[in-house]
Design brief:
Blueprint: H1 5-30, H2 33-38, E1 40-48, E2 51-53, H3 55-64, E3 69-85, E4 88-102, E5 114-130, E6 133-151, H4 170-179
Parallel strand pairs: 1-6
Antiparallel strand pairs: 1-2, 3-4, 4-5, 5-6
Length: 184
């Protein structure tokens, strides 16, 4: 069975849109604010939990929630994409996140040293091809379950190479080295 050129384009678009969501998770988990902002069209409308507004304000909102964060990981589940017009796709993406916080986070309960949050949600978003890139143009966070587990000890990183919620994460060092070419 052969694949038509329009089907190949559809597969490339699907992969690019899935990458858009994966880059969102990376940007939020690594506090990569430049990457996060680049994912949104200039006229994007965002409804994300406690935030409603534009992309610049959303980046500031997410950045403001970072004090005391020790670990954050967003995971993507099934992704359903539906073309609604040429260059426009409606996306429904299931996800879950795990985050741990220590002081000075306001999320840490009185008398505790930290808190672990586990949440489920869906992203219900409209994405558009803008030039060569797919970008978010309208986003909605649909909340599911939330579990908060207070900790009697501060959350801590594991020994060895650990993920870090910042641009100091090992990923960026590896990428810089790999992009510079083969090792001598």
């Amino acid at each position: 069975m052969s694949v038509s050129s329009s089907e190949v384009l559809a597969l490339e678009d699907r992969a690019a849109i899935e990458d858009l969501f994966a880059r969102y998770a990376r940007a939020v988990d690594r506090c990569d604010w430049v990457l996060l902002r680049s994912l949104y069209a200039s006229d994007c409308v965002i409804d994300h939990g406690g935030y409603q507004g534009d992309a610049d304000g959303f980046v500031d909102f997410v950045r403001g929630r970072r004090p005391g964060i020790v670990h954050t990981a967003h995971y993507l589940g099934q992704i359903l994409l539906e073309r609604v017009a040429a260059g426009r796709v409606a996306a429904e993406v299931y996800g879950w996140a795990e985050q741990s916080f220590a002081h000075p986070s306001p999320l840490v309960p009185e008398g505790k040293e930290g808190v672990v949050l586990r949440s489920t949600y869906r992203y219900v978003d409209l994405v558009e091809r803008r030039g060569e890139e797919w970008q978010f143009v309208e986003t909605h966070l649909v909340l599911g379950d939330l579990e908060m587990r207070p900790l009697d000890r501060p959350p801590r990183r594991r020994a060895g190479v650990s993920q870090i919620p910042s641009l100091d994460d090992p990923l960026y060092g590896f990428l810089g080295r790999w992009r510079s070419g083969p090792s001598e």
